[in-house]
């Protein structure tokens, strides 16, 4: 069986700095366990360097696309959305390149609840049907930015992600067609700690830019009060 897999990393952050890049690396490692050589494509680098034609050729020759991205305002980041639209336009211009392939979505968000990624997964599902591919399932991750921190709870969640990536690999290798549920990975930090650490983070950022904690509550665009 052909195991031609393309892993797409869709964070707008500088390459190497994103949780999505980290997840793409882990996914590639999981596929390599069986000797496959998946190709990893960074959306940001591809668009910056204008390598889209080459990237689209590689995507069109894949049997599986694993699309990994962060949740931005409860959806896909603009550059990932644009990249997928450009790929659809490429396939429309090259109909001979269209082929049956399996599509998987891996979405990580900042909030602890992984289920808030569902709508973004559904957008990838619509994308798959628009390019004539078969959408399989999504992996939805809460507190994704914490997955590579050196904490025991984070390491446990990372192992959960490795197991999810193995499910993607097996699903694809077996050519499954039956419906499969999405996989949810909850944040490594308990909800309470998530908010405590988040608030400390905001205060630190305010200080870094010469502001005080109370400045975070400023409402500069509030309409003037009639006195
Ligand atoms: C502009 C922007 C919008 C975001 N919107 C959401 C959101 O709607 N929900 C959420 O849980 N996290 C949101 N986040 C947090 C990211 O999803 C989170 O930090 C993620 O781990 C970043 O992944 P990356 O490092 O791969 O870019 C947002 C972050 C940014 C910068």
The total of beta strands comes to 6
What is the radius of gyration?
A: 19 Å
Q: Looking at this structure, what is the CATH superfamily?
A: Flavodoxin domain
Helix content: 40-55%
Main sheet makeup: 6 strands, parallel
Written description of the protein model:
The chain is α/β, with parallel strands linked by helices and 227 residues long. It is 44% helix and 15% strand. Helix 1 links the parallel strand 1 and strand 2 (39-42). It is globular and about 65 Å long. The mean pLDDT is 94. The structure holds flavin mononucleotide (FMN). Flavin mononucleotide binds next to helix 1.
Quick take:
The protein has helices at 19-32, 43-49, 52-60, 78-93, 118-130, 152-173, 191-208, and strands at 5-9, 39-42, 64-70, 102-108, 134-141, 183-185. It is globular and about 65 Å long. With 227 residues, the chain is of the alpha/beta class.
List the helices and strands and how they pair.
Blueprint: E1 5-9, H1 19-32, E2 39-42, H2 43-49, H3 52-60, E3 64-70, H4 78-93, E4 102-108, H5 118-130, E5 134-141, H6 152-173, E6 183-185, H7 191-208
Parallel strand pairs: 1-2, 1-3, 3-4, 4-5, 5-6
Helix pairs in contact: 1-6, 3-4
This protein binds flavin mononucleotide (FMN).
Name its key features.
six-stranded parallel beta sheet, alpha/beta, globular, Rossmann fold, binds flavin mononucleotide, 7 helices, 227 residues
């Amino acid at each position: 069986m052909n195991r031609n897999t393309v892993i797409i990393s869709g964070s707008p952050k500088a390459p190497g700095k994103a949780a999505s890049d980290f997840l793409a690396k882990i996914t590639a490692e999981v596929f390599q366990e069986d000797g496959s050589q998946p190709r990893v494509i960074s959306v940001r680098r591809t668009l910056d360097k204008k390598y889209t034609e080459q990237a689209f050729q590689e995507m069109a020759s894949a049997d599986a696309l694993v699309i990994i991205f962060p949740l931005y305002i409860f959806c896909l980041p603009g550059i990932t959305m644009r990249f997928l639209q450009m790929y659809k336009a490429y396939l429309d211009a090259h109909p001979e390149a269209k082929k049956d392939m399996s599509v998987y979505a891996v979405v990580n968000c900042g909030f602890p609840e992984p289920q808030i990624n569902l709508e973004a997964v559904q957008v990838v599902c619509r994308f798959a049907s628009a390019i004539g591919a078969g959408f399989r399932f999504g992996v939805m991750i809460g507190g994704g930015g914490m997955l590579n921190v050196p904490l025991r709870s984070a390491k446990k969640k990372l192992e959960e992600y490795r197991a999810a990536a193995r499910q993607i690999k097996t699903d694809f290798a077996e050519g499954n067609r039956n419906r499969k549920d999405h996989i949810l990975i909850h944040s490594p930090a308990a909800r309470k700690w998530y908010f405590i650490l988040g608030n400390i983070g905001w205060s630190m950022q305010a200080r870094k830019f010469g502001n005080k904690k109370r400045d975070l509550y400023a409402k500069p665009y509030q309409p003037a009060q009639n006195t």
